[in-house]
């Protein structure tokens, strides 16, 4: 993935993550042990009516699919005889929104859109690419959105 | 935790999370399999110089400590003969910043500050509380910050 080859407006099909009850519970026991994520009985009388995934679990699942998407792009470059260029670190994310609960066995499909790109003033070898990512459940309802900012290497010599 | 008892400006000591190499790798293999999180050799020549935690791992560790802090407040209320009130869901977070890498064996101490509170117009039983959370490593360097928005139940009948 090279900065110069990225076009604003391009869509990215990142894939689908199915949230099993077991994975929801395992993630939440480690990182978000609130009753509506880990305790079936308490969740029934809680704000969501049933166990649902930690919002951080949803965000992490999105990141897993995004990282695997970058991995596939690198493999494709390698197969075409080009040197694969991994994206660099991310300085942060904006507009993290949990729009609806993600319940056990929900399958959330994430898609991205390249929102913007700009050259980095402080790091001339890199550009900063902004990707809006939306997660939609099996009923077509948006459950999650976020805007990611990722450093992407520029083509040596430019152009 | 009751909305009316929360004072803007209050500090919260959330605790410390130690990021073992094993946990960094386990989280990243599931949710962020980029080479600088999972592959020692690749990480050495990568942007951070060594394996470091996924930013989502750092955020999730913060959430784990925040949820346990809420749990301790509930236990204290129960011990004092009061009905514990769990915080409600969060509509989202703002200003997620990864300020420095979190390396293997780093111990990150998270503290919170109550930034603001306001009654919810749409949900009269709840107030919305904003908490700024900062994570600082064992060398005193900030590595992470975020502002959380959490729904907190209001006292029935008010006051």
Detailed description of the structure:
Two copies of one chain form a homodimer. Chain A has 159 residues and is of the alpha+beta class. The first copy, chain A, has a single domain (3-153), classed as Thiol Ester Dehydrase, Chain A, CATH 3.10.129. Helices cover 28% and strands 32% of the residues of chain A. Chain A has helices spanning 21-31, 35-38, 40-44, 55-79; strands spanning 11-18, 92-98, 107-119, 126-136, 142-153. In chain A, strands 1-3-4-5-2 form a five-stranded antiparallel β-sheet, with helices on one face. In chain A, a hairpin with a 6-residue loop joins strand 3 (107-119) and strand 4. The first copy, chain A, is elongated, with a radius of gyration of 18 Å. The two termini of chain A are 14 Å apart. In chain A, 34% of the residues are buried.
Report the average pLDDT across residues of chain A.
Answer: 91
Classify the beta-strand content of chain A into a percent band. Answer: 25-35%
End-to-end C-alpha gap of chain A: 14 Å
Number of DSSP E strands of chain A: 5
> What is the CATH domain class of chain A?
Alpha Beta
The CATH architecture assignment of chain A turns out to be Roll
CATH superfamily of chain A, by name, is Hotdog Thioesterase
What would the principal axes of the Cα set say about the shape of chain A?
elongated
SSE ordering of chain A: EHHHHEEEE
Strand order of the largest sheet of chain A: 1-3-4-5-2
